[in-house]
Design goal:
By secondary structure, this protein is of the alpha/beta class. It contains 15 helices and 13 strands. The protein has helices at residues 26-44, 61-76, 96-110, 119-123, 127-134, 139-158, 169-182, 185-190, 213-223, 240-253, 257-266, 295-304, 315-321, 352-355, 368-373; strands at residues 15-16, 23-24, 52-56, 82-89, 114-118, 162-164, 195-196, 204-205, 280-281, 288-289, 337-340, 343-346, 381-382. The strands form 4 sheets. It has a 7-stranded mixed beta sheet with strand order 7-8-6-3-4-5-13, with helices on both faces. Helix 2 packs across helix 9 and helix 7 packs across helix 10 (240-253). The longest helix has 20 residues, at 139-158. The protein starts with 14 loop residues before the first strand and ends with a strand.
């Protein structure tokens, strides 16, 4: 028997909220969904009028809904924000190239500027090339580390004040669980914060912190938003997938489990005498790091030296085996990224070959011809249509 919407009691309910199990009509669901995100933004005070905000746009459901909702709330409540889309092209054939087409269509529909940065331009490697070297077991490690820095670089080129990402409540619950399983106290202490990276280049914010993934899907479906829904071809073996499956099982039994896990992470207390990583900067590229060399530099050095496992696992032990000093200077595009105090500046992206600094045979291994072809290339902003 049809029932009326629990909120307006006028329209027929056509959906059941996964978060609360309330029966609602479309219009009320849209309003409540948007208002809950507005409350999260207002209560946390993550934005200030006049700020330029970069939206991490992958073309998937989360980032597409994030861009749409932020644009809607920015106009409804006069946030006074300048919004811009930032996309990262990892170089995954049949996946990222297709999803970027969705981003470009959204750029036109939402009338927002778009910036695309690529792994190939920034690091001299695409994910397809990396997977050929490392296989499918640890490829997500490379992609996650490189993607985080690539987003920051895109934001720095555009001068944004903050970057917002579409990480939702399910993602945060998975992260809490993963950090518990790994015994990573440092990340566990900060992973539930709505804003992270204040000590680094650009703060990152998560407006969807308390928003369920299923509700994001429902919102995108009933709003008929244009998004790309295919899973990355390299992700089925990712460690996060096991945490995700466990969280989904918990949600099926008790939907509130997701929020409860997040609240548990928020209330976590660490002993005063616990040894936590000290945040510093990478000696080579200047990016924030708790080690002498950041993860990206270790990974990139391994790729360019033909030792792809160098940055995975016990890095220091492998460096000793191959007699590599932490101060080893790698002539690569990573050297173009410099950090002073807590601000980064990205110089013109050019290869070591173009600068005439290729005095080491390991530099740009098997990439010399590519470097020569790219010596005059710069990252360019895609113009507005």
């Amino acid at each position: 028997m049809p029932i009326n919407c629990i909120r307006c009691d006028k329209n027929k309910a056509i959906l059941k909220r996964p978060k609360t199990a309330d029966a609602m009509c479309k219009e009320c669901f849209f309003f409540v969904f948007e208002e809950e995100i507005h409350k999260t933004i207002s209560d946390s005070g993550i934005f200030k009028p006049g700020e330029k905000i970069g939206i991490g746009a992958s073309g998937g459901k989360d980032s597409t809904v994030l861009a749409y909702v932020l644009k809607t709330l920015n106009e409804r409540y006069s946030y006074g924000l300048e919004l811009i889309l930032i996309s990262v092209d990892e170089g995954i054939t049949g996946y990222r190239d297709d999803s970027l087409e969705s981003v470009k269509r959204n750029q036109v529909e939402y009338n927002l500027p778009l910036k695309v940065v690529t792994y190939d331009d920034l690091y001299g490697w695409t994910m397809d090339e990396i997977v050929k070297k490392v296989g499918r077991k640890n490829n997500c490690t490379f992609c996650g580390v490189f993607r985080r820095q690539a987003l920051d670089r895109g934001g720095l080129l555009l001068g944004v004040n903050k970057i917002v990402t579409g990480h939702n409540a399910d993602d945060l619950a998975e992260t809490v669980l993963m950090n518990v399983l790994r015994g990573d106290i440092g990340r566990l202490q900060r992973c539930t914060a709505i804003t992270t990276g204040n000590e680094g280049a650009i703060p990152r914010c998560k407006p969807f912190k308390y928003t369920y993934e299923k509700e994001i899907v429902m919102y995108a479906y009933f709003k008929k938003l244009d998004y790309f829904s295919t899973e990355c071809v390299y992700s089925p073996n990712a460690y996060r997938g096991y945490a995700r499956a466990y969280i989904k099982d918990l949600e099926a039994i008790r939907p509130r489990s997701i929020i409860d896990i997040i609240h548990s992470g928020e209330k976590l207390a660490v002993k005063k005498d616990a040894k936590l990583p000290i945040q510093g900067v990478c000696e080579r590229c200047g990016y924030i790091s708790s080690m002498n060399l950041c993860k990206a530099c270790n990974l990139l050095e391994g790729l360019n030296r033909g030792l792809p496992k160098l940055g995975i696992g016990k890095t220091q032990r492998l460096r000793k085996i191959y007699n590599l000093s932490p101060s080893y200077s790698l002539n690569s595009s990573m050297n173009n990224l410099s950090l002073t105090s807590s601000q980064l500046s990205l110089n013109e992206v050019e290869s070591c070959c173009a600068r005439g600094e290729n005095n080491n045979e390991s530099c740009c291994s098997n990439k010399n011809s590519s470097c020569q072809n790219k010596q005059n290339q710069k990252l360019e902003t895609i113009p507005d249509f």
